[in-house]
Design goal:
Length: 520
C-alpha cells in the first residue's frame, strides 16, 4: 500500500511484491506449526504496517511530513482534542472507537488471511513451489528490464523499503536527541549581561504576536490571496493614518500544517525545533528565549496571553513570563468557535483591559498567541464594535449563524475560502487593536507560526510565513533597515527569506544586544 495520498491508485496494487515471493518460498520449507506461527506473525506485521501507511498518509496531508514512530504517538491526543472541538465529543468518541476497532480488525484479519494462504500453499506444495519459482523469475526479469504499467514498475519491494525508511528515521531521531541537547547548551547570547540586552528598546512596549496558520499561501494562492492582500493593504493605510509604519519579510517555519508550538519555540529560542523531542529538550534548558531576554533585563513586565491554553503550561518558566492569561483568565463568557476558545478581537480587548491599558511602573513585553485562524476555519467570528465586546456574549448569534466544521472539513475549495476569511479577520483584529490602543512607544512584531494544512496550502507549498514589525518611532524601523524588508504589512515575493531560527539573534543584534556566548 502506498504511504502518500497521491499514489493511492489501482495501478499500485497490480505490482508484484518481492516480499510475497520470498515469503511463499520460506513458508513452503517449514513444518506446520512454525509455518503457521510465521504466517500469523508476518500477517499481523503487514496489517500493522498498513495502519502505519495510513498514518503516513494522514501526516503528509495535514502536517506535510511522514509519521515518526518514535515521537508522534503523543500527537494523536492533540488530533482527538481537535476533532472534539470540531465535530463534538460524541462523534469524536465514536470515531476513536471505530478507528481502534478497524486497526485491530485489520491486523487480525490480515494475520488470519496469511495463515490461510500458508495452509493452501502447503496443501498444494508442488504447484505452489513451481508458482513461487515462476513468480521469482518474473520479478527478476521485470527488474532487469525495468518493465512498467502506467509508469509504475511491475516489480516491487515497497514493504521492505517502508520498513527500512521507518527504521532509519527512528535511528536518526535517537541520534538527533543527543546532538541537539549539545546544541541547546551553546548560546550566542547566553552570558550577555542584563544591561546589554535590547538596550535600543528600553522604554518601549514590545508585543510579539503569532497568528495561527498565517502562511505564505494566504498571500499568494490565487483562491485565497485576494481577500487577505486587500485586508493587508487596507490595514497598512489605516495604520499609516494613525502614525504607524511597518516592514515585512518571510521566515521559513520549522513546522507545517500544525504543531504551532514548534514554530513559536523556534522563533523565540533561535534553535531549529522541528519535533517534539527537541521541544522538550529546549523547554527543560536554560537556553535564552527572546521573551526571557526582556525579563532578564529587569526593565520590563512580561506577560503571556494564551487563549488556546486550557491546562497547566509549564513552558511559562522557559519563556520568562511573569504572568500568563490562559483561556480561563480572560473573562470570556461567549461561545467557542470550534477549536478556538474565543475570538481574537475579544482576546486582544481583554489584554488591553487587564494588562496593556493599566498603569505600570515599567514598560510591557507581551507574547500573544491568536487562535481564530486555527483549522477547521468554521465557524469564523466577525468584527463587532469594540465598545460592545463586553464579556463576549455578543458572539453567540455570530457563532450560531456560522458555518459548521463538518460542512467544510473535507471540502478543499470551501476550506480555502474560509481559511482566507479567518486570516483576514485575525489581521483586522490585531491592526485595529493597534490603531485603537497603540502609543508612541508600542512596538508590534507579528508573524505566522506555520502554513495551513496541505489540503489548503497545496501539496508543494513552501514553509514560509510572513513576519512584520510595526512602530510609530521611526528609529525602531531604522534599526532593521539593513534587513531589506518590504515597506508595509505585505512582504514582496522576493523579500528576504530567513530560517525562523535565525530571527532571535537578528532581532537581538538589531536592537543593540552584545553577544556573550555560552558554550557547551
Amino acid at each position: 500500500m502506498p504511504n502518500t495520498l497521491g499514489n493511492l491508485s489501482p495501478r499500485e496494487f497490480v505490482r508484484l511484491p518481492a516480499e510475497a515471493v520470498i515469503g511463499a518460498a520460506v513458508l513452503l520449507t517449514l513444518p506446520r506449526r512454525p509455518r503457521r506461527a510465521l504466517a500469523a506473525f508476518s500477517g499481523a506485521a503487514l496489517g500493522a504496517l498498513t495502519a502505519l501507511n495510513i498514518l503516513d498518509i494522514g501526516y503528509n496531508e495535514y502536517l506535510g511530513r511522514h509519521f515518526n514512530v518514535i515521537l508522534d504517538w503523543e500527537l494523536l491526543d492533540d488530533a482527538q482534542a481537535y476533532l472534539e472541538d470540531s465535530l463534538g465529543a460524541t462523534t469524536t468518541t465514536l470515531l476513536t472507537i471505530g478507528v481502534i476497532l478497524l486497526a485491530a480488525l485489520l491486523i487480525a484479519l490480515v494475520a488470519l488471511a496469511t495463515v490461510h494462504i500458508a495452509d493452501l500453499l502447503a496443501r498444494h506444495r508442488p504447484a505452489a513451489s513451481q508458482g513461487a519459482l515462476i513468480a521469482g523469475t518474473v520479478w527478476i526479469t521485470c527488474t532487469a528490464l525495468g518493465l512498467q504499467v502506467a509508469g509504475v514498475p511491475i516489480a516491487a519491494d515497497h514493504t521492505a523499503g517502508v520498513i527500512k525508511v521507518h527504521a532509519r528515521r527512528a535511528m536518526d531521531t535517537l541520534r538527533d536527541e543527543s546532538a541537539f541537547a549539545r546544541d541547546a547548551k551553546s548560546d550566542t547570547f547566553g552570558n550577555t549581561p542584563p544591561d546589554q540586552l535590547v538596550p535600543d528598546l528600553r522604554g518601549k512596549d514590545v508585543i510579539f504576536t503569532f497568528i495561527e496558520s498565517y502562511g505564505r499561501s494566504a498571500l499568494e494562492d490565487p483562491e485565497i490571496a485576494p481577500g487577505v492582500t486587500s485586508t493587508l493593504d487596507t490595514s497598512t493605510k489605516a495604520l499609516a493614518n494613525a502614525g504607524f509604519h511597518a516592514r515585512s519579510g518571510w521566515l521559513t517555519s520549522a513546522t507545517f500544517g500544525g504543531s504551532s508550538w514548534l514554530g513559536h519555540s523556534t522563533t523565540l529560542s533561535g534553535l531549529w525545533i522541528d519535533n517534539q523531542q527537541r521541544y522538550r529538550t529546549v523547554m527543560a534548558s536554560d537556553h535564552l528565549s527572546l521573551t526571557e531576554a526582556f525579563r532578564k533585563t529587569g526593565d520590563w513586565d512580561t506577560v503571556g496571553v494564551m487563549p488556546g491554553v486550557q491546562k497547566g503550561w509549564p513552558e511559562q518558566k522557559y519563556y520568562g513570563l511573569d504572568k500568563v492569561y490562559n483561556a480561563f483568565r480572560l473573562g470570556y463568557r461567549g461561545p467557542k468557535f470550534s477549536w478556538s476558545t474565543m475570538p481574537d478581537q475579544y482576546a486582544l480587548e481583554a489584554f488591553q483591559r487587564q494588562v496593556h491599558g493599566k498603569k505600570r511602573d515599567r514598560p510591557l513585553m507581551a507574547e500573544i498567541i491568536l487562535t481564530s485562524s486555527h483549522q477547521p476555519w468554521a465557524p469564523i467570528p466577525k468584527m463587532v464594535d469594540w465598545d460592545d465586546l463586553g464579556d463576549g456574549s455578543v458572539f453567540r448569534a455570530i457563532q450560531k449563524a456560522g458555518t459548521k466544521p463538518s460542512d467544510i472539513i473535507s471540502d478543499s475549495t470551501r476550506s480555502k475560502r474560509e481559511y482566507g476569511k479567518s486570516i483576514a479577520y485575525s489581521v483586522t483584529s490585531l491592526t485595529q487593536w493597534l490603531q485603537r490602543y497603540g502609543t508612541d512607544d508600542t512596538v508590534l512584531v507579528f508573524l505566522g507560526d506555520h502554513q495551513p494544512i496541505s489540503r489548503v496550502s497545496g501539496a508543494k507549498a513552501s514553509r514560509d510565513v510572513p513576519v512584520s514589525i510595526v512602530a510609530k518611532d521611526p528609529e525602531v524601523l531604522d534599526k532593521i533597515a539593513d534587513w531589506h524588508w518590504t515597506d508595509g504589512l505585505q512582504p514582496a515575493p522576493k523579500a528576504p527569506v530567513w530560517k525562523m531560527s535565525s530571527f532571535r539573534d537578528r532581532f537581538l543584534t538589531a536592537y543593540g544586544s552584545t553577544p556573550h556566548a555560552k558554550k557547551d
